[in-house]
Amino acid sequence: MAALPPPVGTCIQLNPLVARVLAPNPSPYTYTGTQTHIVGERALAVIDPGPDDPAHLDALLRAIDGRPVSAILVTHHHRDHSPATRPLARATGAPIIGAAPFHLSDEGPRADAAFDADYAPTQVLADRDTVEGDGWTLRALATPGHTSNHLAFELVGTGALFSGDHVMGWSTTVVSPPDGDMTAYMASLELLLAREDRVYHPGHGEQVDNPRRFVRGLLGHRKQREGQILRLLGKGPHAIPDMTRHMYVGLDPRLLPAAERSVLAHLIDLTRQGAVAEEEGVWRTAR
């Protein structure tokens, strides 16, 4: 029997330092919804407050329960992760800290992944920068690929990593050019593989209890997709929609636009490797 989804709006204490609250924004791309994580026991950090939804904000404030909030942290500014920073900051007085803002027209497949144009952090974190609170330290880890500004957050001294959308607990992430970059995504996975984290707390889906094995699986999956592309192009030129239909047999039709973006991301990566070339929307192996 399939596991029941976690209850929306309920604060679930994962361990003494980490709790999570599920936002009411399920979709084919967000799974059961965005997971907001709360770190600390007395003074808190809130990671990825999620969409600007009054019910979710109320749930977060109930979970905070009057305790001071030292920082509101953001892994990346897609609309399912960062808009609630603003009402939460007004309610708590906490600074918004994390991924660098930028503006880019969303060429991706889904409205919920569009960039939050109003995202305005008080402080931008670079790789290895830290934020400290009462009994906790969070260290930023640059993990570009899903977005160019994506950060993960290490809870120092615990073996826990808040992996945002770079590593999710239910599916591989969408890598959608022009901002999504498969070369960077693969390099970021290799960076995580070299670490010794004990658990990932992702932005979507359940926690990942064997991170290195999980990351090896993600790398293997992407290599498999790359191999599929090269085998198809070895038989002759193809356009992306045709490749996607061959590679993603049985996929939910609502997810086909996202699959096409991931195929494009792989093709851009293979072009950099000198393996493929494109002319007027048709791709072939490089001569």
TrEMBL record:
**Pfam families reported in the protein's UniProt record:** Lactamase_B, WHD_BLACT
The record's listing under Gene3D superfamilies reads: Ribonuclease Z/Hydroxyacylglutathione hydrolase-like, Winged helix-like DNA-binding domain superfamily/Winged helix DNA-binding domain
Taxonomically, the superkingdom here is Bacteria
Cited InterPro entries? LACTB2_WH, Metallo-B-lactamas, RibonucZ/Hydroxyglut_hydro, Sec-metab_biosynth-thioest, WH-like_DNA-bd_sf
Q: Could you state a single Gene Ontology molecular function term?
A: hydrolase activity
Q: Which SUPFAM superfamilies match?
A: Metallo-hydrolase/oxidoreductase
Q: Which UniProt keywords apply?
A: Hydrolase
Q: Which organism is it from?
A: Sphingomonas lenta
- Name of the featured protein: MBL fold metallo-hydrolase
According to the entry, every stretch annotated as the Metallo-beta-lactamase domain falls at 32-204
